[in-house]
TrEMBL record:
GO MF entries: DNA binding
Protein name: XRE family transcriptional regulator
Residues in HTH cro/C1-type domain copies: 13-69
One Pfam family hit: HTH_3
Amino acid sequence: MISQIELYIIEKVKEKRIELGLSQLALSQKLDMNDSFVSHVESSSKRAKYNVNHINALSKVLKCSPKDFLPEKPF
């Protein structure tokens, strides 16, 4: 089961991805991951999720701070 914090991070990354006009495929490729990586993370039927290294790489690609993907207060 995916946790509340993981869902939050996935949604924040998705929002930023869409805001920048990037497809799931394009973001996966920019991260040097399998073409379906972001698709699997954003899918509720898959168990894939972002880890700390992914968040750091996402911050570089999406030109923002890693903090942008985390809530201000814990769940």
